[in-house]
Specification:
Layout lengths: L2 H7 L14 E2 L2 H8 L3 H12 L2 E6 L2 E6 L2 H10 L8 H10 L8 H11 L5 H27 L6 H20 L1
Parallel strand pairs: 1-2
Antiparallel strand pairs: 2-3
């Protein structure tokens, strides 16, 4: 087998366009109409159809979904200097400040180092216990309404549950 034939027999790792495959939308609103009702389901369908790296183009926005932990590590940890968050995130900085989500470069690295201890395995296990306990308590509170087949305000109850979890997590951290 000559070299040309051998090269053609190998699987193509990078498409000829040098872009990851993925869906295209004429505007962000078209993307939102499809993805918003079930974001997790949308992501799972995209990964099944296009692979572990999905390029979503919703003019003028382009973003990538990464499904494999190695790819996430590559972008967020090993090569973060090669990636930027984009103009929209930069504009959000005015509204929500310069936190981990909006910051970049040295500011982001400094904030990440400060926040890293909160994400240590033992801390996460402690947070899981707090979340489980608060959720069990909330379920007990919802049980009478469930037995009586009465509706509850899910938004209000989830906000209450979230605040309970945050409050317990903060007091456990002090």
């Amino acid at each position: 087998m000559d070299q040309q034939t051998a090269r053609q027999a190998l699987p193509r790792l990078v498409p000829p366009s040098r872009h990851a495959p993925g869906p295209r939308y004429p505007t962000p609103f078209h993307f939102l109409r499809e993805a918003r009702p079930d974001p997790l389901g949308y992501t799972l369908r995209a990964v099944r159809e296009y692979g572990d790296v999905v390029r979503v183009s919703a003019w003028p926005l382009v973003f990538h979904l990464l499904a494999h932990p190695d790819h996430v590590k590559h972008v967020l940890q090993e090569n973060n200097r090669n990636y930027w968050k984009g103009e929209i995130v930069a504009k959000m900085r005015v509204l929500i400040g310069d936190g981990l989500f909006t910051s970049e470069g040295d500011v982001w690295r400094r904030q990440r180092r400060l926040a890293q201890p909160a994400f240590h395995r033992q801390r996460i296990e402690g947070f899981a216990a707090i979340m489980t306990g608060a959720t069990a308590q909330a379920l007990e509170g919802w049980e009478p309404a469930a037995r009586a087949a009465q509706p509850i305000d899910v938004m209000q109850e989830m906000s209450r549950l979230t605040l309970a979890i945050v409050g317990r997590a903060c007091s456990a951290s002090i």
